[in-house]
Amino acid sequence: MDVQLRDWYLAALGVTPYRRRTPRGSKRELSGDNAQDGVDSAAGTLTGPVDRVVKNEAHVPLTAAEMPGNRSSEGIAERSTSTLESVEVPDVAAPEVPAAAVYRSRIACWQPVADVLVLGACAPGQIPEPAELVLLANILRAIKRLPGDLPAPEFLDWPPTVGAAGDVAGARINLAMFLAGRAKVRPFQWVLAMGDGLTELLVPAQHLLESRGLLECGATAIFTPGLAAMAADPACKAATWAAIRFLENG
Fold first, then answer.
1. Given CA atoms 13, 19, 24, 28 in this order, what sign does their dihedral have?
2. What is the pTM of this model?
3. Environment class of residue 178 by beta-carbon count within 10 Å: exposed (0-12), middle (13-18) or buried (19+)?
C-alpha cells in the first residue's frame, strides 16, 4: 500500500503511525518493507506489521470523494455531522390517560309521615313521571302512610355540582350523611328504598331479611323495585307489596 494512503487511513482511524528515524543528511530513505513492518526498537517504539496494531479498530468504509487528495479527515467529520443533523426524529405523543369515570345519581326523597322515609332512584337530572307519583301515593295509602296529598320530593344529587368529579364511594358517603342528618332532625324507623340504584348505594350494617337491612342511621331499609319498573311491570308491584304489606298493620 502506498505510504501516504496508509498514513491517511491510520490518521482517519485515530492511530498515530511510526517511522524509522534516519540520520540527518543521510540519503537513505525508508524502504517500503521497513515502513510496513514497524519502527526501530532502539527508538523505543513498537515493531511488527501495522495491521496488528490497529486490528481492534473498527473499519470505516470511505467514499471516493473521501480518498486522499480529494477530502481530508475533517471532511469525514463534516459528513458524519451532516448525516446526523439530517435525521428527523419523529414526535412521539404521550400515551393518553383515560379520564376517570364519574358516577352520577339522583335520589328523590319523601317523608309523608314521621316513621317512613321514601327514597326513589331517578335518572340523573330527571324527575319522576306523573304516573309514578300516582303509583307511589297509592302504595303509601295502602300501608296507611299518606294522610293527605303526596308532598313534593327533595332531590339528592351526586356529584352535588354539575361537571364535578365523583365516584360511587363518594355517593355512598353522601347518602349516609343525608340519612344521619335527617334522622337527628326528624327521626324515622323505615326507609322504602325503591330502585336498583339504591341497592348499590345503601350498604346495610346488618341484613335482617333478604329485602331488609339495618342502616347505620338506625332505620331499617326495605328494598323494592323502582317506581318506573313497577309502572311498567305488574309483577314488580306484587314484589313490592309482598315486601311492605306488614306495615299495613302499623
1. negative
2. 0.61
3. middle
Helix (H, G, I), strand (E, B) or coil at 160: coil
Q: Is the model's pLDDT at 175 over the cut of 60? A: yes
With contact defined as beta carbons under 8 Å apart, do 100 and 165 qualify? yes
The angle formed by the CA atoms of residues 41, 68 and 85, to the nearest 5 degrees, is: 110
Q: Grid coordinates in use for 39?
A: 519502527
Task: Report pLDDT digits (tens) over 38-61.
Answer: 444 434 444 444 444 444 444 445
Helices then strands, each counted (H, E), the chain = 9, 7
Phi, psi of 37 (to 5 degrees): -75, -25
Measured in residues, the chain has a length of: 250
Residues 159 and 169: their CA atoms lie apart, in Å, by 11
Distance from CA of residue 166 to its chain's centroid? 16
